[in-house]
From TrEMBL:
It comes from the Bacteria. This is Multisubunit potassium/proton antiporter PhaG subunit. One of its GO terms (molecular function) is sodium:proton antiporter activity. It comes from Roseateles asaccharophilus. The keyword Transmembrane helix applies. The chain crosses the membrane at residues 6-34, 46-64, 70-91.
Length: 112
């Protein structure tokens, strides 16, 4: 295995830390938020950004080693496409089933 330049090592480390922080924030949001709709928001954003940071770190590492990194690009594409779509479908199903929410109703909306 070849020795990588310190800038590449620092960039890969920073991307891994950023991805880990976003994943941790998403996990904490899952535990702290009180209802389904609020819990849906935390992991969809955090998982996309957390997994994206880890995949970018892997992509940079492979490019620095001379590989093409096609696998990482495809995984990133699929994660960035499927996470928002699945969150939208879950939210629509919850609205259809009338899942209760603890979010306050805005003052300009009629009270249910």
């Amino acid at each position: 295995m070849q020795e990588l330049h310190w800038v590449i090592q620092a960039l890969v480390s920073a991307l891994l830390v950023i991805g880990g922080v976003f994943a941790l924030v998403g996990a904490v949001g899952m535990l702290r938020f009180p209802d389904f709709f609020m819990r849906l928001h935390a992991p969809t954003k955090a998982s996309t950004l957390g997994v994206g940071g880890v995949l970018l770190a892997s992509l940079v590492l492979h490019w620095a080693q001379g590989d093409h990194g096609l696998h990482e690009l495809l995984i990133t594409l699929f994660v960035f496409v499927t996470a928002p779509v699945s969150a939208n479908l879950l939210a629509k199903a919850a609205l259809h089933l009338r899942v209760p929410s603890r979010a306050p109703v805005p003052p300009d909306q009629p009270q249910p």
